[in-house]
Structure to design on (623 residues):
């Protein structure tokens, strides 16, 4: 009885939480299907209107910016490239860093790891000036690489992979050695497949992280060509319904990637072997 | 020249611990050698040095006429079965067996043939498509052996492979390992702390203690003729009884009895060792035992009791004999089957 009550109760709390989070989103979505004049005169709408197609196509193809060089479609492409790039690079670099820290006979590997870990305390925003100056020296300002590289080393992902590798028994490595696997083969044939779920989880994590970047893209790009969706949210001109439509569309990629990969995501975060 | 030669092999860990002391031994082609000893005695370290998983601090190891001290483990052509099997969890059984062959650049057809042969030999053909997590302990054990066999290595190394199995399965797998080794004929080294496993599997046995080989020989030689108190106590079950005593002019005095004409010139304090199975009941025997406890195993009875100052003295008699707790027994040692050790260093003196 108590269990029945408590499980219902926790469901209730979850439902309330879901409503609190969903209602604003729904309001924006419903409002984005009306004309601007309705919103301006009657405020946010709770029910769907009939201008869905019109508003959304207009936003996708609308040429924004001061020089009219950018469309929403292009922004989605930019954001996608940036997020995927960040996700790929950070997963690969973290995998390899963790491999070296755990399996190579590195002196002071633990100390090195903690030094890497401390970088969490120094987010990009804090080191933005030196980072910009490095990017500018490398001529990477106004380029996709400039958007991607500075945020594609992740101490968190390194931590996750390192902790996972530490749970893999040494005998596996020894057995692989006797079976003729060299350093590279052990990584490719064993560690990568064994950490598959975690790789996917970290990929999602870093994808969303890359997608959500705002300050860094603003700094490193001056050309409208490289605007990302999150920048566009701020920069976009046009009527209120178009902005609403854009906000709704901007939410789709991260949600989509989580829905598609959620099976792995949950497995990866809550470690099963 | 022997197939495997260990010459003054020594292992010192970076922290200064000496795990193996100048160990020398030869293993002949096709021989089943067992390293037995208590945990931490260095037997696994010795095995891992042969496999190449531990560096050799001093000395050298020759395998099939080649010095392998500096040879990479993958090039030594040795196969090892680990205690926890170390199967590759993400590969099915087929790929577990095939992986080592793939890395050696063997053609697909040959791999398939070899894997199927090994699977048939070990009766795991039905499981080839399964992942290790879907197999029972005994099946995993077979896969681990299959992975070793399939490569037809120069030498098999077993690192306590049976200790994760339950008692019944352990006996069964022990038998299978022995049969398999006789069938395949590959030189094998088997590490265990279980003396029954050691006795049953070995062609020859190396009893290791504190990083030193205490005695090397066939199981029966070691059982009949232990060179030291450690070996005598380690081999044989139930354990040999040890009694304190004094040897003077070939006469041994101990716990209320005397043995004359001991074949030894040693004089001084000694330890007398008598195996529980080397005694029998008589009317006026040497040893008077007052029974405290009887363990009935069915085929045998193990009688524990007290003789003068020594407690838990064990005597083994046929299960048909009914002996009650509290009774007094008179025992004789059969055929002078007793062992005398120097008390100061444990060396055998008779």
């Amino acid at each position: 009885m108590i269990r029945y009550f408590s499980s219902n109760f926790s469901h209730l709390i979850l439902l309330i939480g879901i409503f609190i989070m969903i209602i604003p989103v729904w309001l924006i979505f419903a409002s984005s299907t009306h004309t601007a004049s309705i919103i301006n005169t009657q405020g946010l709408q709770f029910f769907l209107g009939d201008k869905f197609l019109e508003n959304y196509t207009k936003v996708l193809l609308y040429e924004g910016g001061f020089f009219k060089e950018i469309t929403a479609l292009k922004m989605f492409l930019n954001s996608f490239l940036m997020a995927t790039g960040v996700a790929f690079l950070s997963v690969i670099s973290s995998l390899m860093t963790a491999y070296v820290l755990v399996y190579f006979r590195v002196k002071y590997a633990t100390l090195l790891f903690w030094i890497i870990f401390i970088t969490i305390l120094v987010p990009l925003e804090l080191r933005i000036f030196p980072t910009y100056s490095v990017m500018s020296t490398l001529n990477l300002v106004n380029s996709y690489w400039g958007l991607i590289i500075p945020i594609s080393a992740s101490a968190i992902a390194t931590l996750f992979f390192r902790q996972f590798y530490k749970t893999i028994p040494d005998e596996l490595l020894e057995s692989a050695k006797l079976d003729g696997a060299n350093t590279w083969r052990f990584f490719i044939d064993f560690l990568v497949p064994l950490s598959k779920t975690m790789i996917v989880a970290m990929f999602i994590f870093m994808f969303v992280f890359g997608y959500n970047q705002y300050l860094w893209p603003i700094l490193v790009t001056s050309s409208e060509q490289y605007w990302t969706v999150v920048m566009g949210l701020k920069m976009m001109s046009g009527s209120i319904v178009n902005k609403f439509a854009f906000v709704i569309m901007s939410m789709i990629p991260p949600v989509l990637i989580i829905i598609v990969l959620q099976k792995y995501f949950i497995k990866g975060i809550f470690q099963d072997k | 020249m022997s197939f495997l030669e260990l010459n003054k092999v020594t292992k010192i860990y970076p922290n200064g611990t000496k795990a193996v002391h100048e160990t020398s031994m030869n293993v002949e082609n096709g021989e089943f050698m067992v390293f037995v000893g208590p945990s931490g005695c260095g037997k696994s370290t010795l095995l891992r040095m042969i496999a190449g998983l531990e560096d050799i601090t001093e000395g050298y190891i020759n395998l099939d006429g080649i010095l392998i001290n500096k040879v990479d483990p993958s090039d030594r052509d040795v196969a090892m079965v680990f205690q926890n099997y170390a199967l590759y969890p993400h590969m099915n059984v087929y790929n577990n067996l095939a992986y080592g062959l793939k890395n050696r650049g063997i053609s697909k057809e040959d791999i398939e043939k070899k894997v199927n042969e090994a699977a048939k030999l070990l009766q795991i053909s039905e499981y080839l498509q399964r992942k290790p997590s879907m197999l029972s302990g005994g099946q995993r054990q077979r896969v681990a052996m299959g992975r070793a066999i399939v490569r037809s290595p120069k030498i098999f190394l077993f690192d306590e492979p049976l200790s994760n199995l339950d008692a019944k399965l352990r006996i069964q797998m022990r038998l299978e390992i022995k049969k398999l080794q006789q069938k395949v004929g590959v030189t094998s080294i088997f590490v265990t702390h279980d003396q029954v496993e050691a006795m049953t599997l070995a062609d020859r046995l190396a009893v290791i203690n504190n990083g030193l080989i205490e005695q090397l020989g066939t199981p029966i030689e070691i059982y009949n003729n232990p060179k030291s108190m450690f070996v005598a106590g380690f081999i044989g079950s139930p354990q040999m009884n040890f009694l304190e005593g004094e040897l003077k002019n070939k006469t041994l005095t101990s716990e209320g009895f005397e043995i004359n004409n001991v074949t030894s010139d040693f004089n001084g304090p000694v330890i007398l060792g008598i195996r529980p199975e080397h005694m029998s009941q008589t009317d006026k025997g040497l040893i008077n035992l007052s029974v405290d406890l009887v363990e009935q195993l069915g085929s045998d009875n193990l009688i524990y009791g007290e003789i003068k100052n020594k407690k838990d003295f064990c005597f083994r008699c046929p299960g048909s004999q009914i002996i009650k707790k509290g009774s007094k027994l008179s025992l004789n040692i059969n055929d002078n089957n007793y062992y005398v050790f120097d008390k100061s260093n444990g060396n055998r003196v008779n």
Notes: The first strand of chain B starts at residue 4 and ends at 12.
